[in-house]
Fold these 4 entries.
Entry 1:
Amino acid sequence: MEIGSLLKGKTALVTGAASGIGKGHVEVFARAGAQVVAADIQEDQGKAVVDAVNAAGGDAQFVRLDVTRMADWKAAVAFAVSAYGQLTTLVNNAGIYHPGGVEDETEDGWNRMVAVNQTAVWYGMKAAMPELLKTGNAAIVNISSLYGLIGSPGSLSYHATKAAVRLMSKSAALEYVKRGVRVNSVHPGQIRTPILGNLTAELDAQIKAAIPMGDMGRPEDIAYGSLYLCSDLAAYVTGVELPIDGGWSAA
Ligand code: NAP
């Protein structure tokens, strides 16, 4: 699909960029003309993503960023500004999943989920905001989940964090609505990435059967939604939640 120069002049920082949906964002944003800072804890994989993007004519650089560490965030934002002179766009995508219901989630599991999926989204917005404000025309996309919109049994901490990201996005959208920073959340349904682990054929079939479109999505399906929200086409769009889920949330 031709996406031309929708993000020309933008500099985007994407977290969780070494794999899955984050990798999809780096590839799609670079194709759309953005300068991309790809951030992850997986250094070799992240560098490989950047190398492939640059070999295809894009402009991307890798930075190591553990999203749970504010010091890493400050360094990553500084890196983006020193590399490209500005930061216009932030995609808070890094995330983890593990199952765990009311009784079997552990305190460590709960705290880890909150640290990576929720607190880190605040850290990212906090660390990037001074640079985003300087541009007068910036956008943040926070990757939540369909599981931030609806419940399911056995994934309590994941739902808690993803639901929090939804309202953190709307609250930040209103806080900055007159200061040139738009904030929106994207809610993927089931997307085929390593986070799903090794699915048995039976579970794979069960998941597909639950999706109205009959199949899981691809990372780029999510990145195309973020592409719109981060582009000037969405200049009047802030505080929205965009499910990209093959119709699941409509059912
Ligand atoms: P993924 O393939 O596992 O990619 C996530 C990336 O983030 C990995 O490279 C991971 O590294 C990295 N990461 C984990 N903890 C980090 C940290 N503390 N700091 C920096 N990077 C870290 O997962 P994905 O499916 O692309 O998920 C991306 C986002 O989409 C997540 O927020 C997820 O909750 C959301 N989402 C996914 C789906 C889906 O069906 N795939 C559905 C709804 C929402 P490691 O490999 O070392 O963990």
Note: The chain has one domain: 11-243.
Entry 2:
Amino acid sequence: MRGLMQEAPLNIPMIVRHAARYHRDKRVVTNTADGPVERSLGESIERSRRLAGALAKLGIGRGDRVATFCWNHHAHFETYIGAPSMGAVLHTLNIRLFADDLVYIVGHASDRVVIVDKSLWPVWEPVAARVNCVEHTIVVDDTGGEAPPSTLDYEALLAEATPLETWPELDEGAAAAMCYTSGTTGKPKGVVYSHRSQVLHTYAGLLADGVGLRESDTILPIVPLFHANSWGVPYECLMVGANLVMPGALMDPESLTRLLVEQRTTVAAGVPTIWQAMLEPLSKVQGGLGPLRSIICGGAALPISLQQAYHRRLGVRITQAWGMTETSPLGSVAWPREAHAGLDQERLDDILNSQGRAVPGVEIRLRDDHGEDVPHDGSSFGEIQVRGNWIAAAYYGEEPTEEKFADGWLRTGDVATIDPEGYIRIVDRTKDVIKSGGEWVSSVKLEGLIMGQPDVAEAAVIGLPHPQWDERPLACVVARAGAQVTKESILEHLEPQVAKWWLPEDVVLIDAVPKTSVGKFDKKALRERFGRYFETER
Ligand code: ADP
């Protein structure tokens, strides 16, 4: 027997139509050097119709890739609405990648149009000179600067455009967006989101135990719109009508703090290094942080000391989420369960510092090196494998390999434990794992503990070849301004907390931990820098 319910394609126009009907008056804000600029959501949708009309006039149609090379701002958000809703494919480019990677990605995706910020023109120009698929370059005049006359001006284009009156009927399986993984191993890989996967991901993100946005919220995505769909924020705002506040190019901690407070932000989202950098400026805000009720943090492990500092000093919880570009990205979120109500603070902190439990719609299993299931007992670890309606089934232009997609499950390359309640704890990424004398050492755990030492600002732990133990951990530590850190003080801090063989073989002081294009610790760069450290005479 078949169900007798109506069926309509799950597509982005469905979300946009709802927003246009119910949330026109909501706020969309971009920070600029002259202060925040505000438009209504209704206006943003109208402008996205103009953009769609302009793109259509340029010959862009279904399936054509429209790339963005932009900060988080109005035009970028409008492209999130307009490009997929007209049937084109939004391709968000990471503005911090090296030119070689960008040239590869733009060519691989066959981008026909690129929307570029004028402030980023000097970064884009060398890429533009080396790609030949891009037919039209549209420049957003975000902070002045120069762009060549051969480019089109975003505002002029919108002003002249005939708005697209109705969005076309779109198949829910059609591509809506693309995002390339940053390619820390090998070439970047293209993840292609469908309309259906985007809609389902938006619903899941909106669950109270997901990101949990409501109409009454104001969200500040500090996470870039080019970093894994900005974790779903743009479409969540459209669906529920939350106000959207974007930082533009003003990404320094002081500007972000001012924006967060002045815009009466209720929810903010960003990677751990952002929250690390914002702790001091946020602590100095006179009169508290207003209605800020939730910070969502993902992309890398959140140090427990940072999470505790936000809770104790600022009264705000940082909620940890886990995911990846291939998972749209929402995979799991760490909320406490009803059963945790009476727990002491330490136990509760430990749960909140986990990577959380799977959001409904994502299935998670752990597998060992031999492809066997690993029990969810909180101590056995294996690779996280996931499947669900917003999980990649293949990369663009490639046959799915067994190495990455095992019998319909995505192999994440993250090693973790899962406890009987379902809470995931990431031990390491496969490529960062340290194996000392045949035993695993969790670099993530060590980093979290070292960053709990009050004199430490940042710490990254890497495994390096060792003549006796195969590999040993090296702790690369950045001291807080004005503080003194020594190898002894770090080891003393760690000794009561970890097994003896987990103690770093050495501690080196560095000025800053190198960061990847999305603000994560770049351990590959550290491994290259310290290379054969344990094998050479010091
Ligand atoms: P990149 O490869 O550039 O880091 P992604 O942003 O897709 O690209 O990164 C996904 C990876 O980030 C995950 O596989 C995982 O290793 C890491 N990650 C994401 N969220 C967390 C988290 N909360 N804790 C620890 N690691 C995380």
Note: The first strand starts at residue 27 and ends at 30.
Entry 3:
Amino acid sequence: MLFDNSYQNLPQDFFERINPVPVKDPQLIIFNNDLGRSLGIDQKINKKELANIFSGNEILKGSSPIALAYAGHQFGNFVNQLGDGRAVLLGEVSTPNQERFDMQLKGSGQTRFSRQGDGRSPLGPVIREYVVSEAMNALGIPSTRSLAAVTTGEKVFREVILPGGILTRIAKSHIRVGTFEYFATQKNTENLKTLADYTIKRHFLSLKDVANPYLSLLEIVSERQIELISKWMGVGFIHGVMNTDNTSIVGETIDYGPCAFMDEYNPSTVFSSIDAHGRYAFGNQPLIAQWNMACFANSLLGLIDKDTEKATSKAQKVINNFPNKMSEAVMSVMCKKIGLDSTKTNSQEALTKLLRIMLDNKSDYTLTFRYLSEIIKGKRDSLFKQQFLEHNQISNWLKEWKELIKDQNLAKKEIALSMESSNPVFIPRNHLVERAIEAAVENNDFSEMKTLLTILSKPYEEQSKYGEYMKPPKPLEVVHQTFCGT
Ligand code: AMP
Ligand code: MG
């Protein structure tokens, strides 16, 4: 594996040089072989050594760990210094395909950004992030990846005593909207410009020679957010903490905290225990993405134009265009789920109607769409209808929908394939993730986690052996709240 660290060539204020704090007894839970191979990691390293490396007890040749500085708006309130308080960037891995990825340890001990925190992570959040980020990737949604997870052999003290864990995260970037806010709020235009230029050079090289690269940066980052959040909406993913420090500049899902997938469809669904007012509810996510991009715009103003009024007017245009573009993207993702062309008004109406009926009937978001895809293939509609308490309305809707499908004059096989590729069979349902966490934390048993990972690596394929994992929770299994657990 080759390290080629560029972030640490930036000025001192961008980071702190700090090694991970060694842990007592690291044990490997899991290593992601496929991902490791793509990063050029030697496949012959034994488990003990993997545990040493991915706990931070051993620093690899070429790695030069740093903790990154950033700020951020948390639940709408600005915090001028956050930063990697429990994580270190081991370095940037240059892959055999000439790509560059950050390799980060999460739960690796205190840094100068830890504030009151211990810099550690309990095992539960490590398991959750590993499973959910890998599932997101397999669902085709941009996400940071998980390369390894270890237990530390140390206890972490929260409200209760918990076993500690460390996650190795792979990301295209750890630059966040909050990184820009960090320098913007300090009015440090020089560092802000250095950050923007670095971001463009590393991630958006095509912007280098455009007329106003910083305005174009705002545009492209907004587009990435639109693409990302519309995909979240299509699978019922709720991030839970869409703060600007958790908003990646490259449009990857990052910082899996109290995230969760919705079972019954309801746009007001919130799981996070810290989201008391539902700011980050499922249906609010498109709006919050716009809010976050407005923060990004604000921090770029000084670079967009020296004349503040002109800069504001240019940035405002991008932000004003955001809602329409977002609606279009969400509509496109959602209409694909029902096999219809999103640019047609009657497709959009059919979708709106279906969602209304699903809301009234507490239908399962995943199964309803999946079973709808099967009707096209000539299967009976009973499984689909079972997702509704009352059948009159949905039967009428089905009749109308079948007409719309017919009017498209496309081969049914084609429509079915397209629908199936956007309607997963398996998602990391909360009760399944909780079950895997419980087995890991209570009994040091990682088999449930590994089974979940196997199933979720092919989320769009029927896997008859795992039928139970398709199902929504039974009443006693329902998870009502999720926790950051940091
Ligand atoms: P997050 O929950 O990942 O969005 O984290 C928000 C901020 O809190 C980041 O600056 C983290 O580094 C910091 N943080 C969270 N948990 C801890 C911890 N246990 N120790 C130190 N810093 C933490
Ligand atoms: Mg964070």
Note: Residues 2-171 form one domain.
Entry 4:
Amino acid sequence: MVLDSSFESITLRQPDDWHLHLRDGAVLAAVVGMTSRVFRRAIVMPNLSPPIKSVDAARTYRQRILDVVPKGDAFSPLMTAYLTDDLSPDELELGQREGVFTAAKLYPANSTTNSTEGVTDIRAIDSVLETMESIGLPLLVHGEVADPDVDIFDREAVFIDRYLIPLLNRFPELRVVLEHITTEQAVQFVESSLSPLAATITPHHLQINRNAMFAGGLRSDFYCLPVAKRERHRIALRRAATSGKPCFFLGTDSAPHVRGAKQSTCGCAGIFNAPCAIESYAEVFEEEGALQRLEAFASEFGPSFYGLPLNEKKITLKRNDCVVPSLIEVQNTDKCFEHILPYHSGETLRWSLCEDV
Ligand code: DOR
Ligand code: ZN
């Protein structure tokens, strides 16, 4: 990585996004270029409606993504399988052998968006986890209990105690990513674990705490799952991301929802940060005096966890103001327009991406 002496530009190996929602149809077409302008690869979440539960579904979804990647962008979607109570281990094995599945995603049933078909009893999928452990297919975990009796701000910490620790004990060789961590408990657990365990960290959990959802009124645009926590957790996440520890790497959890879906009486969880993700991470690393560790977090620790090659190409970020679009337009088949409000909508950020070098 090259950081110029006056900290005016950073050239780094092209990053990957290890946790991304692209959706399908008109939304997919509207958003994919915002990721492919920056990232070479992305782990694509399978929580479509219906979810991606078979090799065929993942293969055709991958093709639909590739069909709408802007010309000139080299972008590889890495597909994931959505675990259910009865997904067969053979399907995962087939998907890995055929180069379709890079990982499988565990959503505890009813824990988040499109998780109703998720896993109701984690112990009941032990045969699947055993196969994944033996074939080296990583398990990606939405680490929250869905138990309505558990306070929403405690659901990640309770998940670690109730389910993750026993799971790692049962499958000591299973490669596991605890996705989009939000608490100091998760940070401490991941950094001290002896298991092949890593965690992704989003830009928004590095920048906002739970006050953002209630600043001057109810702000559904800052509602995501796991929800942002108290300030002390945000500080712990910033330390983790900028620590240079390989168990923490970039995953944006960019999750587009059209305005109507965010602002309904039961608004969807998700923050759409693709238009400004790398720029937001750069701000955080700069504020923490850790720009020299951005490349490892964004471009090295993820591939090394997944056993994939590092990207060859470089990108350059310059200290030039960049204005985040106010709204992203989505054109439906009936020619109606809907809109997605991006994270940092209309704001000016300090770093901007410039052309390849
Ligand atoms: O905020 C979130 N949005 N968290 C998730 O776990 C799912 C995601 C989505 O699919 O919108
Ligand atoms: Zn997600």
Note: The longest strand covers residues 76-82.
